[in-house]
Amino acid sequence: MRSVCVYCASSSRIDTGYTEAAEALGTLLGKGRWRVINGAGSFGLMRVISDATLKAGGTVVGVIPHFMVDNGWCHSGLTELIRVETMHERKQRMADMSDAVIALPGGCGTLEELMEIITWRQLGLYHHPVVILNTNHYYDPLLEMLNRAEDEQFMRLQTRMLWQVAETPEEAMRMIDV
């Protein structure tokens, strides 16, 4: 079974356009029989993508540190739950289990996960597609910053090939379905 790691927001106070895109992606992943790997969150886009994937017949594996379970931040209806000790272990397990990554809009945690997986690709530690789902042009400022880093030679020209940018869930699916 093909597996995709999905990074996304745990906030529930976001514009409905983000929620709709996450639900559409989860539905496509479920219907496509992809196994979703995520952070097992019970809020925000993490919950939306998990619920939509499950409703469409897919499976969801959540990877979550014990302290988050203890704080009640864990989705209780996932196909499988893997408890780990640290955030670092969480990210490593999620990457190890996946055949691709899709990053939806999110906050500091999502941005950190995205930049780390791009760095891992650059270092040859992760060899699968990384897709940025740019719903509502959310990632435009980050992409501009990465372009500037390249323009000012902080990054090599080839670095831009480490990720792809999708504007819709359907486009993201085409990018990981290799």
TrEMBL record:
UniProt keyword list:
Cytokinin biosynthesis, Hydrolase
Q: Report the GO terms under cellular component.
A: cytosol
Q: Which InterPro entries match?
A: LOG, LOG_fam
Question: Under which main EC class is this enzyme filed?
Answer: hydrolase
Catalyzed reactions? AMP + H2O = D-ribose 5-phosphate + adenine
SUPFAM superfamilies, A to Z: MCP/YpsA-like
- EC number(s): the record gives 3.2.2.n1
The answer to keyword Electron transport applying to this record is no
Q: Which GO terms describe its biological process?
A: cytokinin biosynthetic process
**Do the record's keywords include Transcription?**
no
Instruction: Quote one Gene Ontology molecular function term.
Output: AMP nucleosidase activity
**What is the designated name of this protein?**
Cytokinin riboside 5'-monophosphate phosphoribohydrolase
Q: Which organism is it from?
A: Tannerella forsythia
